[in-house]
Amino acid sequence: MNTLSNVSRFLQRSIALAISTAIIPLATAGEFPENAIRLSVGYPAGGLSDVVARRLAEKVADTLSVPVVVENRPGAGGTINIADVSRAKPDGYSLAFSATSPLTLTPYFSKVSYVPEKAVTPVIGIMYSPVVLLGTQTLGATDFNAFIAKAKQEPGKLRWATSGMGTIGHIMFGQIAHDAGLDMTLIPYKGGSQQMNDALGGQFEIFSTNVSATLIENIKAGKLHALAIGAEHRIDGLPDTPTFTELRQPKANLKSNFGIVAPAGTPATVIETLNKAFNDALHDPAIADSLRQSGNIPSGGSAQAFQQVIDEESRNNQAIIQQAGLAAK
């Protein structure tokens, strides 16, 4: 009896140990996140995207109780940043803050190392930056209709500068020139800084760029003339500037969308956790107010909503490129 009793007790202890051992990984395995999160920004330090990303990172770090480390990965219009994150492990610890153009526009003009539709998974839309059509001091017109009239009176003479081929400014040029039947000379720059310097110096007549606090200051000072803006409604910083929709140019109502993406294949539960944390950060009054003061509009919402923005933008860009006959790759 003692032997049987000992065997019975041994078996009971063995079974209990086996059960507890099986349960331990489930009980002790931490939920995402456990480690620091890397947020790469596809633009230089000190710019709007960098500043916004760092403010968001601080809030998200507080919410998730892990560090969120911001790294700058500028170059090639943001495609280097997207390529890097697309190769990262899909575990939620590598994210990218980026404009949507490396997914929806650049691939139509340049060869990229990733397949846009398969490279990343959207996490959240952060903001959109309206694109403003501007006239310099050499244009001789201060509103959109006067610009159109002048361009028709002087075919081939007006110079339209863009920060590069395959940019939003390039697309806007093609759309307006096509719809209004204008003949203008396109001047592509290799970045926005030199373009702005030359705009203030009157080296060309027309250009477009994303709205910013500095741009608004130059407009209010009379150094540049805001002819139209690509936004759903007039913005507080430029209340006298009509939208393209108001001017019956709805296809030119373009804007730059920015958001957070993760490597393709990142688990849905991880995306949900990140989405909630970034949504909470966007609702912080200081962050939301700073975006609006610079002329940008906070986005937020679900990952699915951001995917819809990307898909629609890509379709629209493709249509404009084909319709306007812009040189694609």
From TrEMBL:
Query: Does this entry carry the keyword DNA-binding?
Result: no
* Alphabetized UniProt keyword annotations: Receptor, Signal
| Domain of life the protein comes from | Bacteria
Question: Entry's Pfam families?
Answer: TctC
Q: Does the keyword Acyltransferase apply?
A: no
Tell me which positions the record assigns to the signal sequence.
1-29
State the family named in the UniProt similarity comment for this chain.
Belongs to the UPF0065 (bug) family.
Please name the PANTHER family in this protein's record: BLR1237 PROTEIN (PTHR42928:SF5), TRICARBOXYLATE-BINDING PROTEIN (PTHR42928)
Q: What is this protein called?
A: Putative Bug-like extracytoplasmic solute binding receptor, TTT family
- The organism named in the record is Advenella mimigardefordensis (strain DSM 17166 / LMG 22922 / DPN7)
